[in-house]
Amino acid sequence: MAERRGGGAQPEGQGTMAERRGGGARPEGQGTMAERRGGGARPEEEEGHDFGQEATGLSLNTEESAGSLSVSRDGRTVSRPLTNPPDTPYRWYGQTASPRSFPSGRHYWDVEGSESGYWRVGASYPNIETAENEDWLGNNYRTWALCRWAHNNSYTARHAGKETKLSHAPSCRRIRISLDYEAGCLSFYELSEPIRHLHTFTAKFTEPLHAAFAVWASNASVTIIS
């Protein structure tokens, strides 16, 4: 997708903090705070970590409510409609992104996913689409996603169609997404007690990023709680 559109992120692992310090590319998912501090892997608990500036007032475009997607009046919740409007193509999958973008800096936003259903949260470059499988969140070089699977209570991380199964089983439906644009890091944390780091993507970002959300089936939803 990125090549056809003339841009997008470089292959994952390029342009990371490790490379700029002469350490070479870091394999996906190994950019934890503990490793960057030189202490090696440790239990993924991130108490006291500075996540950046909270993205207060983050919302979605309520005009995007259509056949495969429903956005609440306050623009804070995205879900699948129970019925499809007449003369609207049915899709079992719907996704959207925030109008607000993050072209630089360090920011975070918190979301809460439904107990049932299948959903993804993450970030995307502008002009997120829903038409084909390769456009879905995490299936291309323009999007990054944490995926929550209800049928087996598990997480995966997905970018450019590459999926990584995460070892930590979901214990909380609240997720924090933390962006450090200049460092090229997009991190996901579970807001449990204590807060747990789930995964970090590393990339050289080349366009502004938007908060992105995807839901499957009529029992799935995601709410912005920042």
From TrEMBL:
SMART domains: SPRY. Residues 1-96 are annotated as: Disordered. InterPro entries: B30.2/SPRY, B30.2/SPRY_sf, Butyrophylin_SPRY, ConA-like_dom_sf, E3_ubiq-ligase_TRIM/RNF, SPRY_dom. One of its GO terms (molecular function) is zinc ion binding. SUPFAM superfamilies: Concanavalin A-like lectins/glucanases (SSF49899). Residues 56-71 have a biased composition (Polar residues). Residues 38-226 form the B30.2/SPRY domain. Keywords: Metal-binding, Zinc, Zinc-finger. PANTHER family: B-BOX DOMAIN CONTAINING, E3 UBIQUITIN-PROTEIN LIGASE TRIM39-LIKE. This is E3 ubiquitin-protein ligase Midline-1 isoform X1. It comes from Xenopus tropicalis (Western clawed frog).
